[in-house]
Predict the 3D structure of the following.
Amino acid sequence: MPDAPPARTALPARADLPVRVVRTVDEHAAAVLALAGPLPAQDVPLALAAGRALAADVRSGTDLPPWDSSAMDGYAVRAGDLRPGAVLDVADDVPAGDTRDVHVPAGTVVRIMTGAPVPTGADAVLPVAATDGGTDRVRVDDVVAPGANVRRRGEDVRAGDVVLRAGDVLGAGAVGLLAATGHAHVSVHARPRVVVLSTGSELVPPGTALRHGQIHESNGPQLAAAAVAAGAEVVDVRAVPDDVDGVRAALAAAGAVADLVVTTGGVSVGAYDVVRDALLADGRGELVHVRMQPGKPQAVGTLPDGTPVLALPGNPVSCFVSFEVFVRPLLRRMLGARDVQRRRLTATLAGDVRSPAGRRQLLRARLEWTGGVPVAVAVGGPGSHLLGALARSDALVDVPQDVTHLAAGDPVTVIDLREHDA
Ligand code: AMP
Ligand code: MG
């Protein structure tokens, strides 16, 4: 038997809509960035350091290389002893890890391996390929100049040098440098703990069969992935129906475990825009009308316990773009990163674009390289429900607020969404 149709629920009467602050994208981004600063420092083992931002400058504990070292497998020599055809005694062998103090007597050579300390007396390393490879005596086929194939102590890094600076986000190369300079632990800022709260009575978890009127909850997983990529630790992702008291309770619970709460949906002008009402109920929310497309309705607030809340619109594309321009910079700041913005580049527009007057448009695009020059190909269109196209984009074309038309071939500023560091 088919389910009985649900009883009609009357829409609540529309009360006077609360006041909205009108801001440009830059004004709202600045207001959001002011909500929190870098989180406290903590000491972490190097294995957990990738993707974190340094809380203090780091100095090298050692010269790099720590001693003169061989760049080749061959023979440590006195370059002045070398003549093509000369045969010299091999006085000793020095493999990598040999901790002895070895000396090369005049007129002799010492066999040496890559990464082994160059013996005193030697001033160059003769590659094995320039010899007959002898072990007791060696024939010299070619000569080298003094200094050849020797990596000098300290030529890369000097003990005491500042090798990384506070605010640097640690990538693989930096982690390698920390290890090489003797650091087993490092002081970094804590990762921001984020709770993602999706609102909407139409939302059901992915994996659930949809009934008419229902959609899969996609903003929560989308925001969680974006937050992790930005360096955050996502401690909870949950969806709640459109009920003000339920949203208030969920916000309070989120604030108890999060440094930042990110919500989606319910910040617009509808009868059921419950995040709006929940934030205002506690008297510390601010509704904003941002001059942008997509992403016009936004809200920010502070929970009674002091935790900041960023409330993003529910349309998946609006949500995605809002995260990029407002949430991500704040998360990077909380993480302690010196540079909180994405890289921007100038690209050539592949096709014509129209943009609404008075609103800055952030248009989803794919970057292609034609003859080494970046070309931005718009994907999808302005519709903020077009999730299919969103997944194919890796850039946002930034169309200034007062520009209403751009033509194919025009140079445009593009926000590059490809991840460059951990
Ligand atoms: P709202 O901002 O709540 O008015 O929602 C705007 C549109 O986005 C509606 O079509 C919602 O169904 C949709 N939407 C809201 N939240 C989500 C979500 N978490 N996942 C997918 N779509 C959503
Ligand atoms: Mg909604």
User: Anything to note?
Assistant: The longest strand covers residues 360-370. Residues 171 and 421 are 6 Å apart (CA to CA).
